[in-house]
Write a structure and sequence with these properties.
Elements: E1 6-9, E2 13-17, E3 23-28, E4 31-34, E5 39-42, H1 46-63, E6 70-75, E7 78-82, E8 84-86, E9 89-96, H2 100-105, E10 112-122, E11 131-132, H3 134-139, H4 145-167, E12 171-183, E13 188-191, E14 199-203, H5 213-216, H6 222-234
Bound molecules: thymidine-5'-phosphate and aspartic acid.
């Protein structure tokens, strides 16, 4: 399997065409950004860790009935995936208050939410990924009402699978962001990644943060947190 034309370069990954129109190659990078690209850096080993963690988590989700774009790992930092058109949506679930919801609504970090909060953001860097709702999505033709329903149902199911999966590994899943895509034959699948870049992970016993907040907030031992999270997922 060979990388052909580069289709896209994002902040943390590159996507390449292959000689099969139904398959892309994703290359994970060590580059890290925060606050919509305002803060830039690099986390040594992150590309390899996020590639491997996404492989393990997506395989586990597939086994539990969630369709994903993942096909197979190609190397430490590359994976083969189904070619999809990504919905320009960031789909967020929050089980515990942290990050932007605390700033926006004055909630205390660590507040356990009575029910998960579901949010959509419009994936658009120029506008800072603003939060939107179903009505915006349908009006702007980002997805249809039926597609929104599929995405919402799958996201809640994914949360119901991920919470106990990580809890068994001593991790509280505080919140996460996922993305969905549509394959060439029209199936909606989980795409992108599930990693410390895209989730908040707190150690169950100590509440230690084991995710990208260590980079965002200069908490130190960023690399160590990524290494620890891969170890937990591999256990
Ligand atoms: P937030 O609290 O900053 O809105 O983040 C919610 C979750 O989404 C958190 O797990 C981090 C993740 N996230 C991304 O993956 N990409 C992003 O661009 C942002 C802002 C958050
Ligand atoms: N806001 C993203 C994050 O903190 C990264 C970025 O937008 O530059 O995960």
């Amino acid at each position: 399997m060979e990388k052909l034309e580069q289709l896209y370069e994002g902040k943390a990954k590159k996507v390449f065409k292959t000689d099969n129109p139904n398959e892309f190659i994703i290359e994970y990078k060590d580059d890290a950004t925060a606050f919509n690209g305002e803060k830039k850096g690099s986390i040594v080993g992150k590309g390899v860790i996020n590639n491997k963690m996404t492989e393990l988590v997506f395989n586990m989700l597939e086994e539990k009935g969630i369709p994903t774009h993942f096909i197979k790992l190609l190397s430490d930092s590359e994976q083969l995936v189904k070619a999809v058109t990504i919905f320009p949506l960031e789909v967020i679930i929050r089980n515990t208050a942290a990050g932007s919801v605390c700033k926006r609504l004055g909630l205390e970090e660590g507040l356990k939410l009575k029910t998960p909060i579901f949010e959509f953001c419009y994936k658009n860097d120029a506008f800072g990924d603003p939060m939107i709702n179903d009505s915006h999505i349908i009006a702007m033709e980002l997805a249809t009402a039926d597609e929104i329903e599929t995405i919402r149902d799958m996201t809640y199911k994914i949360n119901d699978i991920l919470k106990p999966y990580f809890f068994e590994k001593g991790i509280n899943l505080i919140d996460f962001k996922i993305e969905f895509g549509k394959t060439n034959d029209g199936q909606i699948v989980l795409a992108d990644e599930i990693s410390p870049d895209t989730c908040r992970f707190w150690d169950v016993k100590t509440n230690e943060k084991l995710d990208k907040d260590r980079f965002r907030r200069d908490l130190g031992n960023v690399e160590g947190a990524y290494v620890e999270m891969l170890k937990r997922v591999q256990s």
